[in-house]
Amino acid sequence: TDFGFQEVPVEEKARRVRGVFDSVAERYDLMNDLMSGGLHRVWKAFTLARTGLRPGDRALDLAGGTGDLTRGLLRQVGEQGEVVLSDINASMLSRGRDRLVDEGADDRLSVVQANAEVLPFPDRHFDCVTIAFGLRNVTHKDRALAEMHRVLRPGGRLLVLEFSRPNDLIRPFYDLYSFQVLPRLGEWVAGDADSYRYLAESIRKHPDQATLGAMMETAGFARVEWFNLTGGVVALHRGYRA
Ligand code: SAM
Fold this sequence. Notes:
This protein is of the alpha/beta class. The chain has a single domain (12-165, 207-241), classed as Rossmann fold. It contains nine helices and seven strands, in the order αααβαβαββαβαααββ. The chain has helices spanning 12-24, 28-36, 39-48, 68-77, 90-102, 141-151, 171-190, 193-205, 209-218, and strands spanning 58-62, 82-87, 109-113, 126-132, 152-163, 221-229, 234-241. A hairpin with a 4-residue loop joins β6 and β7 (234-241). It is globular and about 45 Å long. It starts with 11 loop residues before the first helix and ends with a strand. Mean pLDDT is 91; it is low at 4-9. Bound molecules: S-adenosylmethionine. S-adenosylmethionine binds next to α1. Pathway: Cofactor biosynthesis; ubiquinone biosynthesis; Quinol/quinone metabolism; menaquinone biosynthesis; menaquinol from 1,4-dihydroxy-2-naphthoate: step 2/2. Keywords: Menaquinone biosynthesis, Methyltransferase, S-adenosyl-L-methionine, Transferase, Ubiquinone biosynthesis. Methyltransferase required for the conversion of demethylmenaquinol (DMKH2) to menaquinol (MKH2) and the conversion of 2-polyprenyl-6-methoxy-1,4-benzoquinol (DDMQH2) to 2-polyprenyl-3-methyl-6-methoxy-1,4-benzoquinol (DMQH2). This is Ubiquinone/menaquinone biosynthesis C-methyltransferase UbiE.
C-alpha cells in the first residue's frame, strides 16, 4: 500500500523530542543494549509474542524508530502481509529503513513519517498496532490512542510497550540507576547527558499501569490488560478494538 509521505506540523514538545532523537539516532541501538543490559530485546520479544498476527495480516509499528519490532512483525505477517514502519523523526526512520532493507525487507514494508497524533492511514486498516517506548514522547496521548483505535479493524489489537511504575522493592535501585547512572552512561557513550536526563524525566512523568489502562479504555479499547515486565520497570498494555 502506498500511503505517500506525510510530515505533520509539530509544536514545541514534539520539536524537542525530535532534537533528542536526531542527536542519538546513530548510537541509538548501541545505547538501548547498554542502558537496558540487553533487556529491551526480551521486552520486545514478549510483545511480539502477543500480537496475535497471522500470515497475510497488516501491522503498524508506530514510533518505530530503527525498526526492532517492525522486523518481528514482518516475519509474522509472512509473504502476503503488510507492515508499516512509522515515526515522526526522519533520522531514526531512515536508519530503520536502511537496516530492514539490508536484511532483505521488500515491498511488504512501507515507511511513513508521521506524528502518532495524526495518522495518515484509513479507518479499520490494521490487524495490530504496536508502539514501543514511543507513547511517552507523544504530547497528546489521548489523541494518539484515539488514532490508533481508528486505524484498527474491529478485533484488532493495540500493544503499548513502555516504561512504567516499578514495584516498591525495585524502585530505590531504579531511581538510583536512572538519575545517577543513566546520564553518565549517556555522556560517556553518546557525549550527551541531557538527552538521557530527559529520558529519566519523561519516564517519571509517564502514566502508571492503571492510568494508562484507563486512558486506553477512554479511547475505546476493550479487554484492556497489562503485563509487568522486570518488576514493572516496563509494562506491556494490550487492548482490542471492539
Ligand atoms: N520503537 C523503537 C524501539 O523500541 O526501539 C523506537 C523507540 S524510541 C525510544 C522513541 C521514538 O519515538 C523515536 O524514534 C521518536 O522519533 C519517536 N516519536 C517521538 N514522538 C513521536 C510522535 N509524536 N509521533 C511518532 N513518533 C514519535
